[in-house]
Design brief:
Two copies of one chain form a homodimer.
Chain A (H helix, E strand, L loop, with lengths): L5 E5 L2 H10 L2 E8 L2 E8 L1 E3 L2 E6 L3 H8 L2 E11 L2 E13 L6 H12 L3 H13 L8 E17 L1
Chain lengths: ~150, ~150
C-alpha cells in the first residue's frame, strides 16, 4: 500500500466560518427517531446563523420535532484539493410575529438569489396541485463548526 | 411572485437506482441520540448495496451504535437542471470471517478507484501519529430510494 501524495489537515474554526459565509449550497441532515435524512439546500450565511427558504415538507416536519441539525458544505478545487466543513446547530423557524424582523431580514438576503425561491416554489407546485404556496423561512443557529481539507503534498 | 420557469418531478425508482449505480460521491447521514451527522463519502454501488472504504472515526462509531443511514446523491448538469436521490439503508460492517468474501469483493471494486484509499489513509495518518492504519470496509444495504429532478420548462 503506497503512501498517499495527499495531506489532510484540520481547518481552523475561523476559516471554517469563512467557508460557510461564502457557501450557498450545502447538505442538511436532520433526524427523527434516530433515522437520518439528508437533503441539499441553498442558503445564505451570516455569522453564527444560516437562513433558508423552504415550503412545508419532510425536513420541516422533522426539524419541528427535533431541531438538532448538521449542515455539511464542501469546496472542491481539484481531485486532491478539497475542503469539507460541518456545522452543528439548531433549527429555528422564523414564525410571525415573534421573528417578524428576522424573517424580513432573511427574506431580503435570500431574495437576492432568486433561484432559491424558484426551486422551492416549483417543487411545491407539483406537490400541492391547487397551487397554494406558504413560504416558510427558517434559521439554523450554529453551535459549532469543524472542517478538514486535502492538499497535494 | 412570478411563476417559476422550472419543473420539478419525481424520479421513478428504477431511474433512482440507475443514478446511484453511476454515482461515486455522496453525502452520508447517520444519527446518534437524534443528533444527525453528515459526511461526504466515495463509494461504489451495486444493485441494492453500496460499498465504502473507511478507517475508524466518528461515522463508524455512530453507525455501529445505530445502523440506520441516509445517502444523498445528486447530479447537476445546469443551474436549473439537477437530480437528487436519497437512499435509506442499513450499515453493515464487513467483518471477518463472517463477511470475508464480500469484503474481498468490495475491496476489488474500490481498489479500481484508488483515490478512495489514498484519501482515507491520508486522513488516518494525521489522526493516528504512530501510522497504524486498520482498513475497514462497510456496506449500506439499501431499503428504499426516492428522487426528484428539476428541468427547464
Amino acid at each position: 500500500m503506497e503512501l498517499p501524495p495527499t495531506v489532510i489537515s484540520e481547518i481552523p474554526e475561523a476559516e471554517c466560518r469563512e467557508i460557510l459565509l461564502r457557501a450557498s449550497l450545502g447538505r442538511l441532515g436532520c433526524a427523527l427517531d434516530n433515522q437520518p435524512y439528508v437533503v441539499p439546500i441553498y442558503f445564505v450565511c451570516e455569522p453564527g446563523c444560516i437562513y433558508v427558504f423552504s415550503t412545508y415538507g419532510q425536513k420541516i416536519e422533522w426539524m419541528r420535532a427535533n431541531p438538532r441539525v448538521c449542515l455539511q458544505v464542501d469546496e472542491v478545487t481539484g481531485a486532491s484539493q478539497w475542503a469539507s466543513v460541518i456545522a452543528n446547530g439548531r433549527f429555528q423557524e422564523l414564525v410571525e410575529p415573534q421573528f417578524s424582523e428576522e424573517r424580513e431580514h432573511a427574506r431580503e438576503l435570500l431574495e437576492a438569489r432568486q433561484r432559491w425561491w424558484l426551486t422551492a416554489l416549483a417543487e411545491r407546485r407539483i406537490r400541492v396541485p391547487d397551487g397554494q404556496v406558504a413560504p416558510l423561512f427558517f434559521a439554523i443557529r450554529i453551535d459549532s463548526v469543524t472542517g478538514i481539507r486535502s492538499t497535494s503534498a
